[in-house]
Design goal:
Length: 284
């Protein structure tokens, strides 16, 4: 439910005149309208349309990038990241010899770091002339507390960063596996046109879910290239995604998931899937 508007599936909407138009063979195969239209179930929105729109604009503003990444640039960035991951298998001494992909390249231009170093150098120079009495009264125990807290904070932060990375990686791989399992069931148990449409929706939802998570993955270059290359959406379906705004939040990929659920439920209602198999595909 986006902006108080009822979610519908363009491929199964009987009121959509474009579904009756003559298209390419691929489009006729993937987007053939079903015999019985799916009844959309209206859901109660937890937040008002105005608040949801404001949140979407905030996310879009925070994740917007000054650089418009082209697909070739995205491939170069991904290749660079994969090379960095391979360094985990290298010996410890060799890991320290790398410059690209490490924090050293960022520390080189870090203002806070160089300001701290400058203050330290200034204090050391002033110490040659003599320090105030209150500095001499500071014992090493107090400095040890500060050092211990700093060490704990760094270790905790690094562990949390690694935990988040491996958690997100695990979710991504699990999503890939679930799509493969559902696609296998759909291909073997459903008519071809329904199976291909369900597979399109699942892959489109998977790709759309990454839009906006980073400035490197905008809809203009990342999602558009994938969607056009693999023909994941029709013109009507893509118009719906543009209306929702892929860069404004997660509403777009959630609606694609709803479309996929419509396909499974409608196939069950028409007797193409039994109750157990439909429940298994919904759980996936």
């Amino acid at each position: 439910d986006q902006g108080g508007e009822k979610a519908t599936n363009p491929a199964t909407d009987p009121n959509n005149a474009n579904n009756n138009s003559t298209g390419s063979i691929l489009r006729q195969t993937l987007v053939a309208p079903v015999k019985a239209p799916v009844k959309a179930v209206a859901t109660t929105a937890k937040v008002s349309a105005k608040a949801a729109k404001a949140v979407g604009h905030t996310v879009k503003r925070l994740t917007s990038s000054k650089q418009d990444f082209r697909w070739e640039e995205l491939q170069r960035i991904e290749k660079k990241r994969r090379n960095i991951l391979k360094r985990a298998e290298e010996p410890f001494w060799k890991t320290l010899t790398h410059w690209d992909g490490t924090v050293l390249s960022h520390l080189r231009t870090d203002t806070v770091l160089w300001l701290t170093v400058a203050i330290y150098i200034a204090i050391r120079i002033a110490a040659r002339e003599g320090l105030p009495d209150y500095v001499a009264d500071l014992d090493s125990g107090r400095m040890g507390i500060v050092g211990g807290f700093l060490t704990f904070f760094i270790v905790f932060y690094v562990n949390q960063s690694h935990k988040r990375f491996f958690g997100l990686y695990g979710h991504s791989m699990a999503c890939k596996g679930r799509i493969f399992d559902t696609a296998t069931l759909a291909k073997t148990c459903m008519p071809q046109e329904r199976a291909l449409r369900l597979i399109r929706y699942m892959n489109a939802a998977h790709a759309a879910a990454y839009v906006g998570l980073s400035a490197v993955y905008p809809s203009e270059s990342y999602f558009n290239h994938i969607e056009q290359t693999f023909q994941l959406l029709t013109l009507e379906e893509r118009a719906r995604m543009d209306k929702i705004d892929l860069d404004a939040g997660g509403a777009a990929y959630r609606e694609l998931i709803v479309w996929a659920m419509y396909e499974v439920q409608d196939a069950k209602n028409q007797g193409l899937l039994d109750r157990e198999l439909a429940a298994m595909m919904r759980d996936q």
